[in-house]
Amino acid sequence: MKIVYVVPGPMDNKEAKRRENLLKEWVFPSTEVEVRTVTTGPASIESMYEEYLSIPETAKLMVEAEREGVAGAVLGCAGDPGLDAYRELTKDMVIMGPGAVGMHAAVLRGSRFSVLTVMDSTITSVYDLVDKAGLRSKFVSVRAVNIPVLDLAKDREGTLAKLVEYGKKVLEDGADCIVLGCMSMGFLEVAEDMEKELGVPVINPAKVAIKMTEAFAHINYTHSKKAFHTPPKIANGKVKSLDELLVSK
Amino acid sequence: MKIVYVVPGPMDNKEAKRRENLLKEWVFPSTEVEVRTVTTGPASIESMYEEYLSIPETAKLMVEAEREGVAGAVLGCAGDPGLDAYRELTKDMVIMGPGAVGMHAAVLRGSRFSVLTVMDSTITSVYDLVDKAGLRSKFVSVRAVNIPVLDLAKDREGTLAKLVEYGKKVLEDGADCIVLGCMSMGFLEVAEDMEKELGVPVINPAKVAIKMTEAFAHINYTHSKKAFHTPPKIANGKVKSLDELLVSK
Amino acid sequence: MKIVYVVPGPMDNKEAKRRENLLKEWVFPSTEVEVRTVTTGPASIESMYEEYLSIPETAKLMVEAEREGVAGAVLGCAGDPGLDAYRELTKDMVIMGPGAVGMHAAVLRGSRFSVLTVMDSTITSVYDLVDKAGLRSKFVSVRAVNIPVLDLAKDREGTLAKLVEYGKKVLEDGADCIVLGCMSMGFLEVAEDMEKELGVPVINPAKVAIKMTEAFAHINYTHSKKAFHTPPKIANGKVKSLDELLVSK
Amino acid sequence: MKIVYVVPGPMDNKEAKRRENLLKEWVFPSTEVEVRTVTTGPASIESMYEEYLSIPETAKLMVEAEREGVAGAVLGCAGDPGLDAYRELTKDMVIMGPGAVGMHAAVLRGSRFSVLTVMDSTITSVYDLVDKAGLRSKFVSVRAVNIPVLDLAKDREGTLAKLVEYGKKVLEDGADCIVLGCMSMGFLEVAEDMEKELGVPVINPAKVAIKMTEAFAHINYTHSKKAFHTPPKIANGKVKSLDELLVSK
Amino acid sequence: MKIVYVVPGPMDNKEAKRRENLLKEWVFPSTEVEVRTVTTGPASIESMYEEYLSIPETAKLMVEAEREGVAGAVLGCAGDPGLDAYRELTKDMVIMGPGAVGMHAAVLRGSRFSVLTVMDSTITSVYDLVDKAGLRSKFVSVRAVNIPVLDLAKDREGTLAKLVEYGKKVLEDGADCIVLGCMSMGFLEVAEDMEKELGVPVINPAKVAIKMTEAFAHINYTHSKKAFHTPPKIANGKVKSLDELLVSK
Amino acid sequence: MKIVYVVPGPMDNKEAKRRENLLKEWVFPSTEVEVRTVTTGPASIESMYEEYLSIPETAKLMVEAEREGVAGAVLGCAGDPGLDAYRELTKDMVIMGPGAVGMHAAVLRGSRFSVLTVMDSTITSVYDLVDKAGLRSKFVSVRAVNIPVLDLAKDREGTLAKLVEYGKKVLEDGADCIVLGCMSMGFLEVAEDMEKELGVPVINPAKVAIKMTEAFAHINYTHSKKAFHTPPKIANGKVKSLDELLVSK
User: Fold this and answer.
1) DSSP code at position C148
2) ipTM of this predicted structure
3) C-alpha span between D87 and A84 (Å, rounded)
4) Which residues on chain C are in Cβ contact (under 8 Å) with D84?
5) Would the pLDDT of B10 be above 90?
6) pLDDT exceeds 90 at position A249
């Protein structure tokens, strides 16, 4: 069974490989994992505009993966950009967004969760994501460490210290589970260190998303086509490919 | 004071002109209105994927309009695709999404509202939009007439009959206000006819969006930059233009 | 097109004229504005009891205005006292309450709002108003500056300082928009000064209410009679006037 | 211990006496009950305007009762008009509104409740009352039998038949408890008959309100003055009586 | 009319008698009160496991009381353990849980309430209880004094001081009513002392539960059997007694 | 890695073996599965009382499994009876309740879900479970097929027909995912047949619970001890074993 992890922005091959190796450590032996990255997209995602920019190219990778018979795909951004669109465009492949998965996992492990996000610029989108996931009554707070995504890994200890500092704040807010709101935080592998300091579960969105995708793909738990219809123009046969949905005057 | 109405898909000039003329009828004499359309985009928007497809080109028109000193912009799709992104990218221009505006207007006019949308494929996005607007406790139901966007105007009487038929259903659901969930419904000018048949307010998203934009623009009621931050890479000066946010490997 | 602004308490003519002049500055040239005040009512409104006291006389002014063919009316109190009753008693005139309008405007401009109110005695009513508007999921907090309504204008700088002080507190609470919860705060014209200090939109309930009323009145967006029925005794013809609804034994 | 039941509209003495006798049957032997009625007010309450009309005179009876040392007061209308105001104006007397009491009682007896109200014109106010009580998540539906208040008792069997008919509808809606949304329904003593037909609890707002008031008054469970502040002008001594809160220019 | 107060854990006779005497002080003269205790159960209840442990024996006392013709029963734990089960097993006896009763009473007396509980270990269950009661929109916060149940009475003054200290915190959180979340706090009779210090109502769950049970029992306000069905095996006659519901392989 | 599936009621060995075999089909090759059943408990669970009856014996099996080093446990009842208690009593073993897991899985696969439960007697508990899971805003409806648990397997085709019939009803209610609310429905393996008829995902609680437990156990995603504290008497060392928590007088 094959799972692809689709990075919705260009990423250098070394880092992509490093992430692939981590993902492989997390899955069961029989699960094959491959990281795929778009060639054109945002350098990192710290705004809704960058989220949207990432979608057209990522959609192509998703559709391609399904055609190849890939069983499941993880969308590699904790804002879940385009998740509903990718589900509209596919039918047989499980696709999971780590934002929603991370928050549901928190509720399955605890009672009330907070999110630690990268920048103040992503706070509003966390609220919107919580509402989209339907989890407002379990949500305590969101706080930003204000370290740009591309700087998170430059000083792992500094980042960890900030995450612990803000983790303590959300515990005071009342959280009993913490969700990391960024994939680069996930691949920094700080969750375990944070747990030691904070004494509560810290959800790594990369790890939990690949596990949930693996679990669902293994039993063909794909998405509801009544919730995520095939775009009518494709369903009706008026349009034959993704590309034709984009027209010019 | 100038307001632009930005159509997020290509539209033939005649229809664009027709819509512009209607919009001009709705505003105050001192308000200038111009319809602008992207040259590349989805033919119509009936899926989340088409919503996302429309964003990159529309963003450019929005940023351009602000640079020209335009006071307000209406986003010409009732799904409000990219609204948060356009607000991130601008600061001094009021931008309104007719989806959110229509629903808030319904709550300001009545007590409980339903949405009539085009296709079953847009029902999930209506729920998400209601939650994003924070109006779940005032929301009764959404029903689709299942007429494709591009067919709505082909048989105005047929469309009106369907809208009245489904309008009666949502009244039975308990609504006391009805929101039309598609701009092409708005420019078909059926709301008044529906009101006569149904006896409750029927919100035309095009009309109410231009009025709200006009009202807010007139008093400089722009959006909160604390809610919609400028993308950090632009704010920090690392990136000089929209185009540079998109990179290739 | 004529809009009346109805003050639900007695007000000296000079202050009423001052307010009328401000309102005139805010509307479009073609909109006529007139301030009307009851002759008997509460000196100011800082309690629910005073809200209720204001209703019978204000109702008469509302009904009278509709009879005259006035297009829209603003209820001049941010607690929206009697709004539903005035809508029951009218049909063709737009009537807006600045409390609800201000909160919906905040949600249209930002993501999460707080209210600054006058006294601790009005805090419970703000919660009730938020629930009535259906906006609990967008509401962050309410804080009172504890300056009586009639003292707000006595020391404009002192009032502004307090509002900025409490504005900072609600920003810490997480708000990205602030709503002023009192018309006298609105006519003090402090919102712009607050915005400069606080960096987020500050909604002036007087300004936004007149603009929304003007916008809705211009397109005949009156209220739903299914939500706000004519009182049955009037609808059935058993009672011919407002006064007859009040009987004595 | 004395409880007063305050009718917020004029009522003929015979009917007032009949109600007093019923109330006396429901209380414990040591509890004294007296029905008091305003001399001027609405003939019946079927609209928000009539609710508001009832408040000024009722407030005087409430304040007077507290001065006499009455232990508790029931507000005799299921819309709870003015309840918050009466609590602002008193401190030592328990005051209960049968609307809120009835709905909380339903939740204490079952899991999900519906309300049967008199007229379509009171449906919106039931939603508002549910929200004010904080019970939206337990609320199933509201339906109106559309019999005017003053006609309810004219044909007891006809009214009962209608209530059973609509009771069956709300059971289909999913309710497991039914709340009668009108005091005249309560004093018609139909709840027990309805229970026999419907097999679920039917809350008589008159009966449960007097019992809850009696229970709370017996242990001095008055209202929170932090929730219902004394009007500042009275608290500060600037105004000496209720009447002085109403001023004329 | 007889009310039993059922302690769901073993309690020494002296303390049971002391509690019975207090309960007798709170009821009307014609109400008979008896405290009954299980002989086997948890020593105190500070965890969900202990809640569940208490249920089988308590169920027997409840069923027995109904058979004797007892009119009402108070479940003697503020976590309301097994309340729904006891209601399934009975039909004619009012059974109240002080957890739900206390929270509804708070909402009937004020606008927004907080809970003071014994230990951090009961915080999650307070959230669940609030949701089960349907009162999340009226709930402000829960705080634990972290004094074990069995130590509460060892140092009444120390306990009171802690409760006042945490009471001040929840007032800052925004509460205008406080609910004591433990019966042993109730029987310590600290609520009145707390009210003097804090100026807001402090709900004694023991006192309000016996009063509500007394009030409801007096008018036969039992629970909805549509909400709390008799277990099908008993309803169908396949099982003749409680004991037979427990089978062994 | 070993997962136990704990049946909280006595079950004959043949059926237990059959279920174990199905569970083994669903997991990855490296995962060991063992079904364990209590020897004393309810014959089936169709009421809250039976839920509670199952807890004391099941708790022992859970604690024992953790001591053995089992990685994860599935609680074999879709009402999740005692889940919070088992989490209080353990620390290193993942424990999942299929009720909550099934509902979260539905939200991860679709947008709005309904539950099909066995009997009317379990409807209230489904509402409570939805609220406990925090998923009310994604919940559409619950309907009971009214086939006793122990009869579900007697006529597989009849049961399937009923489930399809009620499945159609919940699709009309608006659901786009269906959750089976009973483990015996899960082990009947009807979900796939239902999906073919209904065209939407049908969640098998047994299958999804074992997969989620397997996934979480594989990465040590245990529960939050801040949400589910060890019972204080055990944490403080006052009590050495589960049995000692139960005392007699």
Assistant:
1) -
2) 0.97
3) 50
4) 48, 124-125, 128
5) yes
6) no
Quote the CA–CA distance of A75 and A83 in Å, as a whole number: 7
Å between E29 CA and nearest CA of chain F: 32
pLDDT, one tens digit per residue, over C131-153 is 999 999 999 999 999 999 999 99
The mean pLDDT values, 10 residues at a time, for chain D of 249 residues are 97 97 98 97 97 98 98 98 98 98 98 97 98 98 95 95 98 98 95 98 98 98 98 94 91
C-alpha Rg value of chain D to the nearest Å: 18
Q: By C-alpha distance, which of B19, B48, B55 is closest to B36?
A: B19
Mean pLDDT for C93-116 is 98
Domains of chain D: 2-97+208-245 (3.40.50.1860), 99-205 (3.40.50.12500)
Task: State how beta strands F32-37 and F2-7 pair.
Answer: parallel
Q: Which two tokens stand for residue A90?
A: 């596919």
CB burial readout A117-148, b (16+ within 10 A) else e: bbbebbbbbbbbbbbbbbbbbbbbbbbbbebb
Residue B28 is which amino acid? F
| Residue E237 CB neighbour total at 10 angstroms | 7
Q: Indicate which of A124, A130, A140, A142 best probes the interface with C, i.e. most C CBs within 10 Å of its own CB.
A: A124
d(CA E138, CA E106): 9
Give the mean pLDDT of F87-103. Answer: 98
pLDDT tens profile C149-167? 999 999 999 999 999 999 9
Distance CA C213, CA C16 (A): 19
Q: Which residues of chain E have pLDDT under 70?
A: none
Q: How far is the alpha carbon of C149 from chain B, nearest alpha carbon, in Å?
A: 25
Predicted confidence at residue D249, as pLDDT, reads: 83
Question: Per residue in A108-146, pLDDT tens?
Answer: 999 999 999 999 999 999 999 999 999 999 999 999 999
Residue A26's pLDDT is 98
- For chain D, what percent of residues have pLDDT higher than 90? 97
pLDDT value at C212 more than 90: yes
User: Looking at chain C, which residue has its C-alpha nearest residue E176?
Assistant: C124
Angle, CA F97 vertex, CA F92 and CA F102 arms, to 5° = 130
For F146-155, what is each residue's pLDDT tens digit?
999 999 999 9
Chain D interface includes F173 (CB < 8 A): no
pLDDT exceeds cutoff 90 at A96: yes
Torsion angle of the four alpha carbons E230, E233, E234, E235, in this order, in degrees rounded to the nearest 10: 60
As to burial, measured by CB atoms within 10 angstroms (0-12 exposed, 13-18 middle, 19+ buried), residue B237 is: exposed
Q: How far apart are CA F15 and CA E88, in angstroms?
A: 29
Q: Which residues on neighbouring strands pair with residue D180, listed in sequence order?
A: D116
Q: Concatenated DSSP letters for A144-208?
A: E----GGGTTTTHHHHHHHHHHHHHHHHHHT-SEEEE--HHHHTTT-HHHHHHHHSS-EE-HHHH
What average pLDDT does the segment B95-103 reach? 98
**Number of CB atoms found within 10 A of residue A219's CB:** 17
C-alpha–C-alpha distance, residues E21 and E82, integer Å: 25
For F48, counting Cβ atoms within 10 Å of its Cβ (0-12 exposed, 13-18 middle, 19+ buried), the class is buried
How does DSSP assign chain F, residue by residue? -EEEEEESS---HHHHHHHHHHHHHHS-TT-EEEEEE-SEEESS--SHHHHHHTHHHHHHHHHHHHHHT--EEEES-TT-TTHHHHHHH-SSSEEE-HHHHHHHHHHHHSS-EEEEES-GGGHHHHHHHHHHHT-GGGEEEEEE----GGGTTTTHHHHHHHHHHHHHHHHHHT-SEEEE--HHHHTTT-HHHHHHHHSS-EE-HHHHHHHHHHHHHHTT----TTTSPPPHHHHTTS--SGGGGEEE-
For residue B219, the chain C residues in CB contact (below 8 A) are 26, 207-208, 211
